[in-house]
Amino acid sequence: MGKIAAAALGLLMLVTVLGGAGAGGMLSGFGSSGSTQPSRAALTDIPSDYLALYMDAAATCPGLDWSVLAAIGKTESNHGRSTLPGVHSGANYAGARGPMQFLPPTFQSVVAKHPLPKGGATPPSPYNKQDAIYAAAAYLCDSGARDGRNLTDAIYAYNHADWYVSKVLTQAQAYASGARFGADSAPTAAALQAINYAQGQLGLPYEWGGNGPSTGDAGFDCSGLTKAAYAAAGITLPRTAQEQYDAGPRVPAGQQLKPGDLVFYGNPDGGIHHVGLYTGGGQMIDAPRPGKAIRIEPYRYRGDDYAGATRPVESPV
């Protein structure tokens, strides 16, 4: 699958394009227990013909939520609205074509294996929105999205970069609403800005006490990253993980996390030792430890000492 066209995509546009290792793990929230409904953000942003196609095409793959297809369509071409080369004609610098940015060999292999429904182009074309969206659903399904078992791996197969997985999952969460996401699951503008900033730091080294290149440091430690991310959104956080946990406000235990929440590890009574920035889909961006780069990884893992989450909404200090 080709890389995305370099369009300006608002708050979710990345500061830098940094790839990384594959993002594995199961995506929570977008499982096989039924499709979500479009949020107000989705209804405002997605053209009605595209929205209908995303929902219809996702139904061909059990466990694939339409919002993931829509998030890819947003990221690749702003739902066909981009005027960059390769969206409506020609190809981008990598040879990708159409609103879902398929490389021709990939598109042809998908179409050969999965005949597309009537109503598209004859022969099928990656420039045709119906053909492209149904082909994208089939490609994701073959890559691990069926039954929601390996959706993060499927998105990574679509574009081999951790930042891409994070961006798609965050956008999908903003588009989706319904019982499985809570009554109000869309991230705030500040949360999106914080995530956008953190995505731009992927690949930088962990540095104990690090506050980032803007201060002369090579990288960040965990709380330095979250503090800088929210500072970019106009919200001031304390410096250490324990202080950030204490500042709150806390996300009640059992409540659905939202992109932008801070997730903490350790003993809440004075022993918080790590913090990450939740991006949706069970993933977080964090500066894990010395010798490791800032990366995307599951926020829950075997043997963790997860302590809870906070949801910054205003300067707590």
TrEMBL record:
InterPro entries: Lysozyme-like_dom_sf, NLP_P60_dom, Papain-like_cys_pep_sf, PG_Endopeptidase_C40, Transglycosylase_SLT_dom_1. CDD domains: Slt35-like. The keyword Hydrolase applies. Pfam families: NLPC_P60 (PF00877), SLT (PF01464). Gene3D superfamilies: 1.10.530.10, endopeptidase domain like (from Nostoc punctiforme). The keyword Cell inner membrane does not apply. PROSITE patterns: NLPC_P60 (PS51935). Keywords: Hydrolase, Protease, Thiol protease. It comes from the Bacteria. Coiled coil: none annotated. Residues 188-314 form the NlpC/P60 domain. PANTHER family: NLP_P60 DOMAIN-CONTAINING PROTEIN-RELATED, PEPTIDOGLYCAN DL-ENDOPEPTIDASE CWLO. Belongs to the peptidase C40 family. This is NlpC/P60 family protein. It comes from Streptomyces xiangluensis.
